Amino acid sequence: MNYSTLKKTAALSFAALLTAGMVSAQDSTRTVTTTTTVSDTTMSSGTTGAKVFGGRGQYKTFSIGINGGITSPFVAIGGVNDWEKAQIGIGYGLSFRSQLAHSFGLQLDLHGGQVKGRNEDANGNPEQIGSRTAFATKFYSATLSGVVNVATIDYIRRKNAINFFITGGAGLAFYKPSYAQTVAQYNQGTDAFDFYLNDANGNPTTPGQPGSGTSKRTVKELIIPIGAGVKFRLTDAVALNLGYTMNFIDGYNFDGTATQRDTRDKFSYGYAGLEFTLGGKGKPNLDWVNPVAMMYDELYDETLRKEVAALKDRMTSVEGAINDLKKDSDGDGVADQFDKCPNTPAGSVVDGSGCVIVFPKDTTMNAGTGAAYSNIQFEFDSSVLRTSSYPALDATSADLRASGATVQVNGYASSEGTAAHNMSLSRDRANSVKTYLVNSGVSASKVKVKAYGETNPIADNSTEEGRVLNRRVSFTKK
């Protein structure tokens, strides 16, 4: 893996950590203690005193871990390697983690161990190729990584047993590479290996040839660990971790040799370990929290349920009052609470108080009756048709459809408001009547609309009774 690929891998890993930390969710450690009956279903909800928005202080958030495992100079994603065969090396580590959220934490890792590899012939025996047979590198590292819980086996249960996580970070590696030139030297064991360092072109950094033991200093270089694993919950405070980490070194000498290829070294570490979360026994472990489940539980908190029940009662009362306000027993378009003349005959034209309007005779057709071409009355400042107008409109529609005649719909208003407003209102009233007639089957071309505003009153606009009569639509049959 070349240096640019190393940088890209690190950048992509950190981006993945941030994204996963925003969207993942884990289950909490809430215990089942209270039974609540909702409708026909009995549900269990528990409480530990922790709240969704209560902050980190209500949880245990700090943990210490120990781990051990095996190392290899090869990594899962492949890439160029200076050796043909990986040999199992031993690794070990200590971790300190602060859980910042239910899905994300920061972890300091201290690792050590040995990474080994060799060349082999077709029979699997060690083989000298050029001036190299095997290498063994002792290392120590300190890294700071983000740890993201990305998934769980069961999102619904309050105490999940398994979490999956990914890690990524950076730090420093300290190592001493050693090198066996011959099979005989390899057979003597790693204590017989020579220590040396080469530059990027494969040349010794100090006078002499590789294997001469000319350089035994410890190398300090950047290391980028990227890994994944699975965590098993043993208790609220103890977890078993199984993981795998690929470690990318910003140097050429980690594997005991440097070639002219621009390939920086790498190694992997597979491990198992125990993690111990510290804190008071009364606090749940933030690592296992499921905010969705906690919010669901809080919905069944006894106090909240009482408040919800009281709110439902109030809503029922409000709905009942609204239904009472809307009730219109005689169907005249005026609610019972405001109807001063209850039980008016069906089809009667009434005023705003529900009383029948007596129309004086005028030059228009059938004014004030339920017959065809009767005047259509409207409420104050309204162009909405009353239900009491439907019989007259239906009769008018039937006559127009039968006769094929044309009718002019004349809209009027009382004198309240400006003349311009009343002209617009009278046009709206006439159009409401036309719409009704067209929807009932009358051809639109047979219905003409004309607005008169507050002109041509049929009653005195200085009285309420007169103004009620002037809020009308009349018909002129042609």
UniProtKB/TrEMBL annotation:
<dbReference type="GO" id="GO:0015288">
    <property type="term" value="F:porin activity"/>
</dbReference>
<dbReference type="GO" id="GO:0046930">
    <property type="term" value="C:pore complex"/>
</dbReference>
<keyword id="KW-0998">Cell outer membrane</keyword>
<feature type="signal peptide">
    <location>
        <begin position="1"/>
        <end position="25"/>
    </location>
</feature>
<keyword id="KW-0626">Porin</keyword>
<keyword id="KW-0406">Ion transport</keyword>
<keyword id="KW-0969">Cilium</keyword>
<dbReference type="InterPro" id="IPR050330">
    <property type="entry name" value="Bact_OuterMem_StrucFunc"/>
</dbReference>
<dbReference type="InterPro" id="IPR028974">
    <property type="entry name" value="TSP_type-3_rpt"/>
</dbReference>
<keyword id="KW-1134">Transmembrane beta strand</keyword>
<dbReference type="Pfam" id="PF00691">
    <property type="entry name" value="OmpA"/>
</dbReference>
<keyword id="KW-0732">Signal</keyword>
<keyword id="KW-0812">Transmembrane</keyword>
<feature type="domain" description="OmpA-like">
    <location>
        <begin position="365"/>
        <end position="478"/>
    </location>
</feature>
<keyword id="KW-0472">Membrane</keyword>
<dbReference type="InterPro" id="IPR006665">
    <property type="entry name" value="OmpA-like"/>
</dbReference>
<dbReference type="InterPro" id="IPR006664">
    <property type="entry name" value="OMP_bac"/>
</dbReference>
<dbReference type="InterPro" id="IPR011250">
    <property type="entry name" value="OMP/PagP_B-barrel"/>
</dbReference>
<dbReference type="GO" id="GO:0006811">
    <property type="term" value="P:monoatomic ion transport"/>
</dbReference>
<protein>
    <submittedName>
        <fullName>Flagellar motor protein MotB</fullName>
    </submittedName>
</protein>
<keyword id="KW-0813">Transport</keyword>
<keyword id="KW-0966">Cell projection</keyword>
<dbReference type="GO" id="GO:0009279">
    <property type="term" value="C:cell outer membrane"/>
</dbReference>
<dbReference type="GO" id="GO:0005509">
    <property type="term" value="F:calcium ion binding"/>
</dbReference>
<keyword id="KW-0282">Flagellum</keyword>
<dbReference type="InterPro" id="IPR036737">
    <property type="entry name" value="OmpA-like_sf"/>
</dbReference>
